[in-house]
Queue: 3 jobs
Job 1
Amino acid sequence: MSKSEKNIRVIISGGGTGGHIFPAVSIADEFKRQNHGTEILFVGALGRMEMERVPAAGYKIIGLPISGIQRRLSYKNFAIVINIIRSMIKARNIIENFKPDIAIGVGGYASGPLLRIASQNGVPTLLQEQNSYAGITNKLLAKKASKICVAYSGMEKYFPADKIVITGNPVRNIEMSLELRDKGFEYFNLEKNIPVVLIMGGSLGAKTINESILDKIEQLNNSKIQIIWQTGKYYYDSVKEEVAEKTEKNIHIHDFISRMDLAYNVADIMISRAGAISISEICLTGQTAILVPSPNVAEDHQTKNALALVKENAAILVKDQEARKILVDRMIEVIQNTDLRKELSHNSKKMAKPDATSEIVREAFKIIRKGN
C-alpha cells in the first residue's frame, strides 16, 4: 500500500433509515479493517436517525438541513428548496475542508448535495444501491459516478452498464454461535426451552405488522412462544401499553434493538418487512423468515425482494393486505414445523453474499488509486 493510501480520507453520505445507515457503517468499518489509517467523515440529514446512530458507532457526522420534496404541490416545497441550497453551500464547505479522496453515497436525502458538490470539485464518487428499484437520488447521481455497486442484476435500466458492479449489499458483521445464543437468552430475559419469534418492522416500525400481532395477542398468550418485538419508535408507547394490559411475560417490547447479533442468534423464526438490507441479513444469518413486504415503496420493490427468496424456497411471503388475517396463524404453523424451518434456513443461507462489504471497499480503493 502506498504512503498516500495509508492516510486516505473518505466521506460516506446518506441515511434516513436503518436500511441506509447500517450499510454505511459497515462500509466504514471495512475501510478501517483494510486500512487502519483511513479517516472517515459521515454526512447525513439533520433530525434523521443517522445523527444518533453514526456517533454511537464511533464515527463523526455532519448534518445537512435537507429533507425530501413533497410529491404533491405544497407550500412546504419552497422551504425545502431553500434548504437544498443551504445544504449545497454547506456541502461545498465540507468538501473544501475535509478534502476527501472519494465520496460514497448510500442513498437518502443528504447524499444528493454532498456527492453533486464532490463531483463538481473533482472528487471521485461511488454509489451503493441496495434495492432492485433504484432510488431517485442515486439515479440523479449516476451519470457522474465512477462506479455503482448493486445487489441485483438488471440494474442497467437505471444506471450506465459500464459503471455497474454486482457486489451484493453491505451488512453488519453478525457472528452466529452457541455462545452468543446463550448470551442472547440472558440479554433478552428469555427461557431456553421455548421457541423465539423475532418481529422486525424496520428501524421506524411497520404499522401492519404491529397491528397484526396486536389483533391476535390473546391467541399468542395461549401459545408456547416467546417474542422479541421491535415496534419502531413511532409505535413503541402505544404497543407497550396495549400489550401490558393483555399479557405479562412472553412478549418483550423494544422501540429499537441495538444488539441485533444477539436477537438473530436466539430467533427460531423472524417476521420482517422485505427491505434490501433486511433480506441480506436474513440470508447471512440463515433465518427462517416470514416476509411482509411494505406496499408503500417505489415500484413495489419489497415484493420483488421477497419473491427472490420465495422462488428459492428460502422464505414465506404474507401480503400486507392479508397480514391481519393470517400472519399470526402462519407464524404458529412455521414454529411448529421443525423440518420446514430447517429447509427455509438452509436455503436462505445459500443465497448470502458475505463478502459484499469488502468488495465494495475494494472497488473504492481501485477508484482512489486510479485518481492518484
Job 2
Amino acid sequence: MENKFNYNWTLADSNFTKDKGKVFSCFACGGGSTMGYKLAGFDVLGCNEIDPKMIEAYRTNHDPKYSFLEPIQTFKERKDLPSELYDLDILDGSPPCSSFSMAGNREKDWGKEKKFREGQAEQVLDNLFFDFIDLAKELQPKVVVAENVKGLMMGNAIKYVRDIYSEFDKAGYYCQHWLLDASTMGVPQRRERVFFVCLRKDLAKKFLYYKDMFTEVPKLDLVFKEKPITFKEVEDTSKGNDPEVRDSYKFLWLKCQPGHNFGTVHEKGHYFGENKLSFDKVPNTIIANSHGSFHWHPSKLRSCTDLEYCRIGSYPVDYNFLDNKPKYLIGMSVPPVMVAQIANNIFNQWLNEI
C-alpha cells in the first residue's frame, strides 16, 4: 500500500495546487505545518512568528504574501490586518507549551515568564494558547487547528485543556482534540502530538452528532493507518562512519543495542537522549536540542545526517536551513506530512461540504 503523501520530497518539484482554501499560520517556526497545508492543496497566505531566525528561514523557503515578526500578544491586537485574514478557511497554530512537556519541569514552570532564543521577549508560555484563541475570535476562520505536546493531556495540565475548550466555545467554535502518532500517518517518526480541531458553530449544523449522551460535536474522522516507514527506508547510504565521534559516544554506541538509548548502557543512566536506531523500526521523536539528543545509525559509527533528519521529519530535502541546525529546526516543527493528512481530512469531510 502506498502512502498518501511522500515523506521524501522536494520543494522544487512540488506542485502546490492552492485550490482547497486559504490558511494562515501562527507560531510558524520554519514552516512545518505550512508545508503540510501546501501538500494538501491549500494556499498558505503567510505567518506570524516571534523568532527572527525562524521567520528568515520561513521567508526564504516560502516567500509568503504576508509575514509578521512580532509576539502573538501584539499581533492579535492589530487593527490593520489584511482583509484576506478575515476570510480564512483554516487558522493554524502551534503555541509553544514546553512547560507542559513530560521532559521539562512541568508544574514548576507554570505561570513563569521564560525566554527562549535570540530576539524573543519573555513570555508566560502557558498563556500563549489563549492568545491564539483570542486571535481566532477576532478573525473568525471557518476552522482552527492547534497542535501541542502530548504532556498537555496528562496530570494536572488537563485543567488547561478544559480552559481551552471553554475559551473556544466562547469564541464561537466546537472544539475537539485528538492524540495522533505521526508514524501511523506516513511519517518515518514516532512522534505523538495533540491536535485541537475546531469548527465555527454557524457552519457546523449539517455535521453534528452526539459523541456521548451530553456532548454534540461535528463529526470528523482522524484515524490513520498508513504503512509504517522504518529507518531502513530513510537511510543515507552514501555516508560512512564519522571519524570525529567523541570517545564517550563511541564507547556507548558500541555497547548499545539497536532500538535502545545510550542510557540503557551508561552506568548512571545518562545519555538517555541518544538513540541508536534500528533498521526495522520507525525512528523515534526528533528532539529540538542544539546539542545532544541525536539519532545514531545502527551499524555505522555516526549520528544521522541532515538528509536522514529531513526524511525522518518529512521535511523537503532541498529545504534551505540558512544557518539553523537542521535537526533543531525539524525537531521544533510539526512534520509536514502529518499536517497534510489532517488538512486533507478536514477538507474532504468539512470544507468541501461547506
Job 3
Amino acid sequence: MLEKNLSIGSTVALAKPELDALLADLRSTGYQTVGPRLQDESIVYKKIEGLKDLPRGIASEQGPASYRLTQTGKERYFDFIPGGQSWKQFLFPPRHLLFTASKANSEEGKDGSGEHSTTRTGGWQIKENDTPAPRYALIGVRACELEAIHIQDRVFLRPDFSDPIYRARRQSLFIIAVNCLHPNSTCFCASMNTGPKVKPGFDLCLTELDDLFLVEVGSELGSSLLARRTFELPSAYTQNTAKRALDEAAGSMGRQLDTNDLPELLMDHIDADHWSEVAKRCLSCGNCTQVCPTCFCWDATETADILGTNSRRERVWDSCFNPNYSYVFGGNTRPTIRSRYRQWLTHKLGAWKQQFDTLGCVGCGRCITWCPVGIDLTEEIAAIRKEVKA
C-alpha cells in the first residue's frame, strides 16, 4: 500500500481526473474554488468546480498591446499565460464596503399652530461591514503571481500596520500553484528571479504533463488533502521530463530586464531626457496599474443617497496615473504625464526596494500586453541605461 503520510517537499503523480475530487474536497471544507476560465476571448479568474471549467487546449499569444487565444490541440489545462486579471482582486478587492452611515429615525407631529414638525431622535448611525471574509482556494497560481502575493504581503502585513481586510482573506487562503512551462513574448520572470518554477509559499504545486500532474506538497494542509486522493510515486523519467520542460521555459523568455543597480539607476537619474520621450506616448490611462499584480494604490469614496440620509464609504482601487491621485491642498504634485510615469516606474523599480526590501515587479509582462500604446518597461529601462552611459 502506498504511504499516505506525505511530508512537505514530497512529489507524487496524480491522474488528471483526481483534481476534480481534490477540488470537491476543498469545497466540502468551506473553500470557494477559483481558477482560470474562458470569457470574452480572454482568461479570467472566476469560480470553478472542476476540469470542465478550465481552458483545456488553450494557449495565448501576447505582445505589446496585443493579446489573443489560440487552440493547441492538446489535452492540457495550463498551457496559457494569464490575461489581464490577477489574483490580487481576491485579497485586495477592487471595491470593498467599509461602512454605511444613516441618520436616525425622525418623529413627526404637530406643533401648537397645527403645522407639522420633525423631532430628531438621534444623530448618525454607523454600521461597519462585518461580513466574514471569504475562504478562497486559488487554482493555477503561476510562479510570478505567487511572488506578487508575497510582495503584497509585505505591503499590507507590515510590522507597523496590518490591513484587516487583506489579513482576514490571506489567513484563510489555500493556494494550488502551477509551474509555468510556456512563457510568452512579454514574460521576463526569469530576469526577476520569480519564475518560471514556483517557489515555496503554496499548499500544493502542479506541473502538468500530457497525461498527469506532478504534485508537490507545500504545507501540512496540502498534505492532508492530497492524502485523500489516489496517486502514485513518479518515475525518474517523469520527473526528468518535468525538469527539462522547466529548464526550457526559463531559457525561452520573451523579454529580459537588467536589474543590476536598478534602484540607483532610476533614483539617481530622475531628470533623464528619456522620461519626456516615454511621456509622449503614455496616455496616463492607468491600465498598467490596474493589471499589475503588485500595485496597491487605493482611495476611499463616499456615496450618499438623494435625501442625504444614507451614505456608503468604500475602498476602491486607484492609480498614480490618475491626476486626482496626486492632488493635495494647494495643487497637484504630479501635474504632467511625464511626472506620473516617472513616479510609477521609479517607485516600482526603485523606492519599492527601500520600502519593502524587494522590487515591485515580478516580470509577468501584463503592463506591456495591456498598455494600449505598447509601452514596454524593459525597453524604457534599457533606454535610460543607455542614455546615462552615453
